[in-house]
Amino acid sequence: MNEVPITQRIECENCPLNDIPHLRPLEDSQRSLISTLKTGEMTAPAGATVLVEGSGNAYLFSILSGWGFRYKTLDDGRRQILNYVFPGDVIGLQGSLMDEMQHSIEALSPLVLCVFQKTDLPKLFSNLPQLAYDLTWLTAREEIMLDEHLLSVGQRSALERTAYLIAFLHQRARAARMLEGQKSIPVTQQHLADTLGLSIVHTNKTLRRLAILKALRWEKGGCTVLDETILLHISGWEGLPALKRPYI
Amino acid sequence: MNEVPITQRIECENCPLNDIPHLRPLEDSQRSLISTLKTGEMTAPAGATVLVEGSGNAYLFSILSGWGFRYKTLDDGRRQILNYVFPGDVIGLQGSLMDEMQHSIEALSPLVLCVFQKTDLPKLFSNLPQLAYDLTWLTAREEIMLDEHLLSVGQRSALERTAYLIAFLHQRARAARMLEGQKSIPVTQQHLADTLGLSIVHTNKTLRRLAILKALRWEKGGCTVLDETILLHISGWEGLPALKRPYI
DNA sequence: CGCCCGGTTGACACACCTCAACAAGGGTGG
DNA sequence: CCACCCTTGTTGAGGTGTGTCAACCGGGCG
């Protein structure tokens, strides 16, 4: 499933990321430089494993469309979902900077990925300092999200934690314009449980409490946020900083 | 306590970091360039808060000596320790890249910090691509550690988690040459509890179990690892990748 | 039709939390 | 020098949040 043919189809001028208001627009000169680095595209169906822990993959990807998640597993199968990935996110950087990936990535919905060669990374730092800066910015932003997840799993109760997670996914998805047309967040309760560090049964009961509070509605294969204010209030989370983020 | 006088005392050629074998040595040209960016030094006594969540600090620091930790708190006082910082680590990058810090940093032992101006960061990316690359490398490494912490807090049992944390601190401290002369890890059980997401009482009982297994010994104000193999075995952790890491 | 997957619910178990009391230092002030 | 307090660590008893087990439901799909 990692062997999907790589072909270039979308030109960078028509990149779907250009239309997402949450992303800081690229200058034309930057875009043309990026387009020289772009190797091609890759698609992955929902449920596919895009990157595998322990592998030393040769590519760096930027997500053009779709949902996915990063995770690690223990030997006996316990799985921790670390974070979710959205259009504009860069994945595979670990495999490019270090020798191998320390986590895996799986598609939640069909993914379209923009492919770069990991060997171009030093070139990017030498020739495109602004893009290198953006890349570091994105990595620092990932750290901010992980910090909040860790605070959540370590200190918040099941109800607080679940409210936080749903609000987090809602904010990120909305920023990426992925909830237009009443679309819901495409996760199973097992995904949420593995993110929260809770059992699936308790996750279910906690979600029902939030549904009774009219904070969300569970639909087949996903959930829809009805009242983000309640979720933020329950979790005591302030929400993501409203920064225009760069992309590559 | 954030107002310790800033003065330059140590020349970069005599930087204590040069002597730590775990760090990839700088080339002379790099070191001289860094020395032009170095603004001075700052010291902080044990227990001092070096950086505060929500502040937009003007500096970027590299740790020359001492132990510290990063943490976040909830409104009602619950605290989650996110990670520990060691000599060679860079802190304050969030305040430099974004508007403000999303976490605080406190000194566990007296800290000596090397101070850089945050406004020099774009200059560093433009003029010193290798150092910018190293900075990104360090950020990616921080992400790897956070991923493992999250896996730990989310999925591992109290015993597994505690074993992991002690082994982790031991490996990092040893790499930084901070355990020479029978020195122990200078944390209280409250620190460990706040890292593990456990109560202090249960942390105490779990540490005693590990002590009975002869994996560690608790001493006044810290712990000493007696048998790292046991800790790794209990936690099912493979240890930190043995990479020579860069520093700035 | 029948199977499988995802979601729901109740009963019960247990890992971990809270409360509480105490011990051993270390620091400080008289 | 002692007296006192505060911090840190230790231990027991009992409570609870969350896990485990198990049964069932509905829909999608072969």
TrEMBL record, chains A, B:
Keywords tagged on the record: DNA-binding, Transcription, Transcription regulation
Pfam families tied to this protein: cNMP_binding, HTH_Crp_2
PROSITE patterns registered for this protein in UniProt: HTH_CRP_2 (PS51063)
Domain HTH crp-type as annotated: residue spans: 156-229
Family matches, as InterPro entries: cNMP-bd_dom (IPR000595), cNMP-bd_dom_sf (IPR018490), Env_Response_Regulators (IPR050397), HTH_CRP (IPR012318), RmlC-like_jellyroll (IPR014710), WH-like_DNA-bd_sf (IPR036388), WH_DNA-bd_sf (IPR036390)
UniProt protein name: Crp/Fnr family transcriptional regulator
